[in-house]
Specification:
The protein has 277 residues and is mainly alpha-helical. It contains twelve helices and no strands. It has helices at 6-21, 23-28, 46-60, 72-90, 98-118, 125-141, 145-162, 167-188, 196-213, 217-233, 237-254, 260-272. The radius of gyration is 21 Å and the shape is globular. It starts with 5 loop residues before the first helix and ends in a 5-residue tail after the last helix.
């Protein structure tokens, strides 16, 4: 925000320092709860979050990117520093140098996984899967599609073995896997040998998801959105419309017309209509 005064930003920087000095906050969370407003409980974002996470990175371990040998005590500080730095860069997703930032975040996330192994961190399987999910998203954004597919498939198979308790976590893993397949298929259309197996697998994954979660609207709506886009790539416009219409009606009734999930479906509906009229 170009209208934000430097003095006002420095207030948030001091708040980050004060939060870091609070032992309970520091032990509770790597970001010391600076990511949420203490008055309204709304998440913070943008320049405020960026500046505070940079402060926390430096307070934890400013040399985390170049440190070679990690002791357990220092390892936890290094892990928290890397997590803070990754969060800060995540706020710069719309930067003109977004590709460079994505590659930086990819390096940071891989370092986090390595540090966790070195210090034998007791984070659960879900944390590891979420790390891989974030890496997969970056691989998709940077068009490393085969690497994204391989990572997403391993995550998906890991979740199946673990018999996941969290439906929402399993869903984002499946959605990430299907998205990586869709992106790779889209790229293959430029060649003489389109990867039809990718789009067919993506469709199968999302059809299964919709059958499983048709009564959970928070999962159902994003899944329908992705499935309809997969169907449109295959020119199955009538079928996409048949799936989209009841979901759109439900989303408008539950969320309202201005909700981001509803807006996504409305845009999809506008894209489909010219092909079925």
């Amino acid at each position: 925000n170009s209208g934000m005064s430097i003095g006002h930003i420095s207030c948030f920087q001091e708040f980050a320092r004060a939060s870091f000095s609070d032992k309970k906050k520091r032990n509770d969370s790597f970001h010391c709860h600076v990511d949420t407003c203490s008055h309204c409980s709304q998440p913070r974002g943008g320049i405020h979050s960026f500046e505070m996470c940079l402060i926390l990175w430096k307070l934890n371990d400013p040399d985390c990117l170049t440190r070679q040998h990690v002791q357990i005590t220092q390892g936890y500080k290094m892990k928290n520093a890397l997590l803070c730095l990754n969060s800060a860069l995540g706020e710069a997703y719309d930067s003109p140098v977004s590709d460079f930032i994505n590659f930086c975040r990819l390096r940071i996330l891989i370092l986090i996984k390595n540090v966790r192994k070195q210090i034998q961190d007791s984070d659960d399987v879900q944390t590891e899967i979420l790390d891989d999910y974030a890496i997969g998203n970056i691989l998709i954004c940077t068009e490393h599609h085969q690497a994204a597919i391989d990572l997403s498939r391993r995550n998906y198979e890991k979740m199946l073995i673990q018999d996941p308790q969290s439906k929402s976590l399993f869903d984002i893993v499946v959605r990430n896997y299907a998205t990586s397949l869709l992106k790779a298929y889209n790229l293959s259309l430029k060649s003489n040998d389109p990867s039809y197996a990718y789009i067919e697998k993506a469709e199968q994954l999302m059809r299964n998801q919709i059958r499983e979660h048709c009564h959970d609207i928070d999962i159902y709506v994003p899944d329908v959105n992705l499935l309809c886009r997969i169907l449109m790539y295959q020119k199955k416009y009538t079928e996409a419309n048949q799936i989209l219409s009841p979901c759109l009606e439900k989303a408008q009734r539950v969320f309202g017309p201005s909700h981001p999930l509803t807006q996504g479906l409305l845009q999809l509906d506008a894209n489909i209509r010219p092909y079925i009229m």
